[in-house]
Amino acid sequence: MPIVLDCEVISDEVAEDGSQRNTKRRCTLAVDAPYIFKKLIGVEVVYFLQNNFLDWANRTLNIEAVNESFSSRIEIFERCRYYAHPDNPDWTCFDQTATLDIKNFFGFEHSMEKMGMKQYTQTTLKGKEIIEYFINELKAEGITEVDRWKPPVDAAASSISRQSSKDMEQENGIADVHGVKRGSKPEILLDGDFIAKHLGQLTPMQESKLLELRKMLEDCEEDMSKLPSYQTILRFLRARDWHVSQALSVLKDSLKWRKDNSIDNLLDDYKMPAVVTEHFPGGWHHYDKDGRPIYILRLGHMDVKGLLKSIGTEGLLKLSLHICEEGIQKIKQSSESLGTPVLDWSLLVDLDGLSMRHLWRPGVKALLSIIECVESNYPETMGRVLVVQAPRVFPIAWTIVSAFINDNTRSKFIFYGVADANTMKEGLEQYIDSELIPDFLGGTCKTLVHEGGLIPKTLYKMNSLEEDEQAEQAQQNKSMNEHGRATNNGLNSDHHGLYKTVELKTGYIHEVVIRNTDVKSVLTWDFDVIRGDLHFTLYRVTKDLPRQQDAAVSFFDLNDFSEGVNYFKEETTLICHHKESVQGSHVMNYKNNYVLHWFSPSCGIEGPTQLNYFYEILSSANYKGSMTSLQSGFSSNSATSSCQSR
Questions:
Q1: DSSP 3-state of 516
Q2: 67 in Cβ contact with 119 (< 8 Å)
Q3: 545: which DSSP letter?
Q4: CA dihedral 197, 203, 206, 207 (to 10 degrees)
Q5: For residue 344, what is the DSSP state?
Q6: Do β-strands 60-67 and 609-618 pair in parallel, antiparallel, or remain unpaired?
Q7: pLDDT over 60 at 482, yes or no
Q8: Number of helical H runs and strand E runs in the chain
């Protein structure tokens, strides 16, 4: 330190067993004061007595200093302590305290006090720089650690080295709010080995925040056995970007939620319904290359409506929580088996077969409720999400769902669309061993995951969902202000609540008009050609459309309509064949009329062409992210259907 001019060793004593060293020094310090002040008191330097007590056995260094100069007028006392952290012996704790008592000082008591405070502040800041300087000096010499002291085999322990850890904690004032010393708590020692084996790479600051949150939880919980694991605490800290107070709040809420809902007993108490066992297309499947357990969910094969009407929203939530609890258990097993940190699991989502039917409103509502619950109580348990065979309708589904997923979790999603089919297996091999890639994704590994499919209505138990759906549909029909036309003897019925079915004779058309007043809103559609062939086109019209009753005559067959003048083809005509499924979407950039147009060129011997369709409009305010006009994608309506274009 610049103000330290000299140090004279007065005495230096070492214990017989080498465990302790007591060094006394007389230090000469420069007076950092204005020139006129130094002239008045008549000194250029002052003297301090310093006592350093090093205890190797208990890993402490105490430094005390008192002033020798002007001791009858001023009392200055300073203490610095270095000691091993009680919970992580690899951490060094440092604290510094000082007192200043000015009795009288030539009438300059107030000025002396201000000068003393300034000097102490500067010394404290400089002290931190000096510590870092000497640590770096040692690193440059190749010294990054010092072996812990061990007593000689034939040496008697010194009086202080025999001091119990409990006495040391009492001396240091380390106790919790209940008066119980930390050493008496049945907890895992958070040392470097434990962190490396169970928690992974953490910075010193992250380790400190982890321990800080753990101690705050200890102060709130009398039963130490009920404290969450360090892995759980770490997940909540990461989810809150290492803000300890925020993590504490949500973790306490989660612990209360677990207690109120008996979540700790869920793995033992949960009885999987037969409908889930026989029809739910999800299950665990080996591990990825990082040791994460893999859960496969064939979402495109899930009968969302049937599942909800069979077990209800509460049943689906309980199933999801059971999967999460299984995931935590498998994460722990994998970590113990590998001997390396595994903190999360992987999700492989197969979207083959996904359509707008999966966006059935009660189903979406249930899904968002589940996401909210899982995000709140199982943060940072999802290490990677591989989404494969994403069809054209997926961007719409993702837009609705992603807003409810936090940014950190969203960053873990990796997408493979239908157009990526040729490179998908190669892409998956970056994360999953090739011999473990499921056979339905081009691999050779068989899975125990059920293929799903429609749930028989005989298993339905929930009627309220149907009522909710009908109310939602009535509201939707009211707000959309749709014009729809079908043949006089055609069928026009409500199919699965949201879908409508029409029959078209040869040469007949079906047109749906959407009057758009929301620029940049997104029009989405999903339809199946149940019987026969159809031509589908999306038009934009700049003039008012009349009401017409003739199902064989299109708006665009009228004399006052001219393509390129007052109506425009927004999507190229798509020829759709028997049992094909089509999903599409289009950004409506104008406040014009948009027309969904189907035309039946011919009918077979089985009867009129049959169309089953659904459409929806996503407002520009609710639609996040840019989206260009997409081409329609179509697929075969079979068990292995997938969109062939995007």
A1: coil
A2: no
A3: P
A4: 50
A5: -
A6: unpaired
A7: no
A8: 15, 22
Length of the chain counted residue by residue? 646
Rounded to the nearest angstrom, the gap between the alpha carbon of residue 584 and the centroid of all alpha carbons in its chain is 30
Q: How far apart are CA 596 and CA 536, in angstroms?
A: 8
Q: What is the pTM of this model?
A: 0.59
* Residue type present at position 541: V
Between CA 55 and CA 168 the distance in angstroms is 12
| Location of structure tokens 């010393």 | 181
* Nearest of 13, 12, 15, 14 to residue 155 by alpha carbon: 15
Q: What is the tens place of the pLDDT at every residue in 365-423?
A: 888 889 989 999 999 999 999 999 887 677 777 776 777 788 888 889 888 876 666 67
Computed over every residue of the chain, the mean pLDDT equals 80
Kindly state the tokens that stand for 255. Answer: 């612990």
Structural tokens at position 251:
């973790």
Q: How far is CA 400 from the centre of its chain?
A: 18
115 CB burial (10 A radius; 0-12, 13-18, 19+): middle
Q: Write out the DSSP string of 546-614.
A: PP---TT--GGGSTT--BTTTEEEEEEEEEE-TTEEEEEEEEE-SSSEEEEEEE----BTTBSEEEEEE
What is d(CA 362, CA 403) in angstroms, rounded to the nearest whole number?
Answer: 17
The amino acid at 390? A
Spatial neighbors of 537 by CB under 8 A, at least 6 apart, are: 569, 571, 572, 573, 574, 597, 599
Asked if 316 and 207 touch (Cβ cutoff 8 Å), the reply is no
Q: Which of 571, 577, 636, 638 is nearest to 602 (CA)?
A: 577
Per-residue pLDDT tens digits for 509-549: 999 999 999 998 888 888 889 899 999 999 999 998 888 76
CA neighbor of 303 nearest in space, from 346, 348, 355: 355
Nearest Cα residue to 609 out of 514, 536, 525, 513: 536
Q: In the 8-state DSSP scheme, what is residue 246? A: H
HEC string of 418-437 equals: HHHHHHHHHHHCCCCCHHHC
Cα–Cα distances in angstroms (integers) from residue 285 to residues 293, 295, 447, in the given order: 7, 6, 7
Cα–Cα distance, 451 to 300 (Å, whole number):
10
